[in-house]
Amino acid sequence: MAEGFAESTTLAEKDKPLILIVDDSPTIRMSLKRAVQGEFQSLEAEDGEAAWKLLLTEADIELLITDLTMPHLDGFGLIQRLRENHAARMQNLPVIVVTGADDTAARERAFHAGANDFLTKDSDRIELLARLRAHLKLAQTIRQLEASQRELRAQANTDPLTGLANRRFFDEIAGKELSLMRRQQDYFSVLMIDIDHFKAVNDTYGHPAGDEILKRVAATLSANLREEDTVARIGGEEFVVCSPATNRLASIVLAERLRKAVESLSIEFDGKRIPVTISLGIALRPLDGDDLQALLSVADERLYRAKQDGRNRFCVADKASHSDGELAVDRICPRMDEALAMIRHGNLHRLKPHLPTLLQELIPLLELVNQQSAETQVDIGQIREIAEKLEN
To answer: Is 237 a catalytic residue?
Structure first.
């Protein structure tokens, strides 16, 4: 690369794109730095390993100029590592190879590894800057297009008022989760949710108040779900939740948690407090169906029954099984994680009949602890006495 290029000050330093120059020759690095300094900020690395560390820590690097023959990690290895990385900025970073000879084999190998362009070290400054400008502009255009595509996908999948998934996206996610639960032969719960008396709220307080309630309820539902659960707004005041690997008892715990969380909301609009409650209908795979539309239909019917029965409640059984619905649930001994969830969410009264059984289930585990730890010994006899007293 010819030296003695005139320096340009057309851009403020902070406005210049950041370029990484990689070469084991300090002289070549200095020559390239001088050539680009009028339009680019530059970082330097003496080999591929040093360059890789900078690429991992400096997210603002927009271009890479690299030699091919270097110690530790050569240019081919650096380019390959870039293109194999999962980060989009690594995969799309423009790479201009600058080497000492016009070597056709090296050029082909560099392009095959993922290089974008190829220059010899005797190329002049004008050609170098022209190539850098072209690749920078192309990379910026690609990033803008990708950002626009992400925004369009988000808009297509998201309810604009609440930020929740919309019905189309919910069907896509829930369908995949349900398919997985079928393969694993596990439970899958669907909860249909409706804000009680929402039309009356709109008529009394106006649509801005209604929008505020929708947003607050949406945020409350989201905050009370697991990461693997999905909530969507599917209509005016209607929401739906899918909860994989959630059995009947756990779905009841979830429904009651959501109901209480919404009921406890303090929503004020124009100085007036607006009470808000929800009704819920629960459907469960495989008891109520094995495809999403069937589960949604059952959950919707049970939501209607919950509203008929007075609102601010959930329904987990249809009319035919309603007489033994909650009693049957109460007779089921929960798993330990479900028991802890019930305690956390104020359902200790449902758990009390099952405490002796849960303690008995703990005993084999505690016996193993005693066998394997001389320092920590649990009084198993005392645990059995407590279980017996709870049974009486």
So the answer is: yes
